[in-house]
Specification:
The chain is of the alpha/beta class and 544 residues long. It folds into 3 domains: 131 residues, Beta-Lactamase (2-Layer Sandwich); 154 residues, 2-Layer Sandwich (Alpha-Beta Plaits), CATH 3.30.70.270; 213 residues, TIM Barrel (Alpha-Beta Barrel), CATH 3.20.20.450. It is 46% helix and 20% strand. It is built from 20 helices and 17 strands.
């Protein structure tokens, strides 16, 4: 028989263990009532243990936290600790105080155990930090793709499994109309809290479309769980008590079967399909999504080849302006697809399938043809874009040189602008191509130039005539002195190297004045003109 003294000592150890980090201990029965309460109940909630016992446990918490706490209870796994979570207690029971909650469901028991702590400075700081994390917000589609990429990348490096659950509110327009905007907004606010709490680090939940949600989570969460939570919330939110349909679909990430690039293509394809079709999409894993992406793109490859062979795209023109004179230094030739498709998506697609060089040759054909036969003898200069991928293709370069040698001397009217320069790995090869063009009299510009170390390495290795500053820096210079100083130093360095500097994405006069003060001479953007079907430009009067 066990010694009573030993049993008492063992009990004291467990109590000390619990109350070293908490102030109140609650045992919740299977029927959702508080069966036992120990600790600082009086000081924490304002009522004694006996009064707490037998009450529904959710009554302890504020109305705003009851959905989250109910979800915590319903989805707790045996032996798995939940929390810590920052909560607010009920006004009547807990005087609206803030507290930290941790919980656990013990194996082989239907009981659920909670600890609440609020006294120490450390706890207060944790509560504040957790509250910041509990103030969830839903991402939009583009933000979600970025967040998902980071989450999947981290999971891949740690050997973890993640899943993506897609949730779709049926007939959302009529539901929203029936509930009214106030009720609907309260519903979506609660949805935000549920999905945020379930998502990886609280940072990977999004509203993809009206009533369509996506969330990246670990394997302890599943679509049935999330669907049931939203259905319960829908019924509670509906004044008629009927609720509304919620459908769900979980997509496994299966990270081992796909490369990082394949995973991203599959993710984007899945999200786009979900945006169009809801949870009726026939995708269970990112692997199957990637296969569907490849299958669908077989037709797109044929379409892209047709565009190249038939030159079914147009050239539009945007001026690069001299800040001192207000006149156009030259025009950049930009491609526009006649089917209305997104130009950047087509160009990226061409790079993905290894046809960037074929497309760039087609663009050069159109540009050379324009300069030789359609420019009405004007001596205006034009810049044509070449992908960094194409510039690392020897066959492309031989074809380009042959086309230039067949035509009239266009070297005083044609500039080559290297885009996607961050994809260049063969710097010596590309610099050799640049020097060949320069020997024939052509100038070369390096696009997408930034203040990072890689860009300065390119500047050291690639002997270009111009650099075009990434528009992100132009957008920052009015409110970031650090970025302004970086551009000023870059401008001076380029001046010393006899390299021209062009700033892009200029949207207002204030940016022009700031760029002039930083000794940057040329710029491009909607402030001057949007791309147009003809190379026409009405000079802007530049204030001194």
């Amino acid at each position: 028989m066990a010694d009573p003294k030993d049993l008492k000592k063992q009990r004291d150890r467990f109590l000390a263990f619990a109350f070293a980090s908490a102030d109140l201990f609650l045992e919740i029965s299977e029927d959702g009532e508080i069966s036992h309460a120990f600790g600082a109940a009086k000081s924490l909630t304002g009522i004694d243990h006996a009064t707490l016992s037998g009450r529904p446990w959710l009554d302890v918490f504020s109305h705003n936290d009851r959905v989250a706490m109910s979800s915590l209870h319903r989805n707790a796994r045996d032996g798995q600790r939940c929390g810590p979570l920052a909560v607010t207690l009920d006004e009547k029971l807990g005087a609206g105080k803030s507290a930290i909650v941790t919980a656990i469901r013990m194996p082989d028991s239907g009981d659920f155990y909670l600890t609440l702590g609020f006294t120490s400075e450390l706890m207060r700081r944790i509560a504040e930090d957790m509250k910041r994390h509990m103030d969830y917000s839903l991402l939009d589609k583009d933000e979600f793709i970025v967040a998902a990429k980071e989450a999947l990348g981290t999971a891949r490096s740690l050997g973890q499994d993640l899943e993506m659950t897609l949730l779709d509110i049926g007939d959302v327009k009529n539901v929203r109309k029936r509930l009214g905007e106030d009720v609907w907004n309260n519903f979506t606010k609660s949805v935000t809290g549920i999905l945020g709490m379930r998502s990886v680090d609280g940072q990977a939940a999004a509203e993809i479309g009206d009533g369509r949600y996506s969330v990246i989570h670990n394997s302890t969460v599943n679509s049935d769980m999330l669907q049931s939570e939203l259905e319960a919330l829908a019924k509670k939110s509906d004044p008629e008590g009927k609720g509304f349909d919620v459908s769900s679909k979980t997509v496994s990430a299966d990270l081992e079967s796909l490369s990082e690039r394949e995973t991203m293509k599959a993710l984007i394809y899945t999200i786009n399909e979900f945006e169009r079709r809801g949870t009726s999409l026939n995708i269970d894993t990112l692997n199957s999504s990637f296969k569907a992406y490849v299958s669908v793109n077989a037709q797109k490859i044929h379409q892209f080849k047709t565009i190249i062979s038939q030159l079914t795209f147009d050239l539009h023109y945007q001026p690069i302006v001299n800040f001192e004179t207000g006149e156009a230094s030259h025009f950049e030739m930009l491609t526009r697809f006649r089917d209305g498709g997104n130009t950047q998506e087509w160009i990226m697609f061409g790079e993905d399938i290894g046809m960037a060089a074929d497309f760039d040759i087609a663009v050069c054909d159109r540009a050379i043809n324009y300069l030789m036969y359609k420019s009405s003898g004007r001596r205006t200069k034009f810049a044509v874009n070449l992908s960094g991928q194409s510039m690392q293709n020897e066959q492309f370069f031989r074809t380009l040189i042959a086309k230039l040698d067949l035509g009239q001397d266009l070297s005083d009217r044609l500039i080559f602008e290297i885009t996607e320069s961050n994809a260049i790995s063969e710097l010596e090869m590309v610099n050799s191509f640049i020097k060949t063009l320069q020997k024939k009299g052509y100038e070369v510009c390096l696009d997408d130039f930034g203040a990072g170390a890689a860009s300065f390495q390119y500047l050291q290795k690639l002997h270009v005539d111009y650099v075009k500053i990434d528009g992100a820096y132009t957008q920052k210079i009015l409110h970031s002195e650090r970025d302004a100083v970086l551009l000023k130093n870059l401008s001076q360095m380029c001046k010393d190297l006899n390299i021209g500097v062009i700033a892009e994405r200029i949207e207002d006069a204030a940016q022009v004045h700031r760029l002039k003060a930083l000794s940057i001479p040329l710029g491009q953007g909607y402030f001057f003109a949007k791309p147009s079907a003809k190379p026409e430009y009405e000079p802007v009067r530049m204030a001194s």
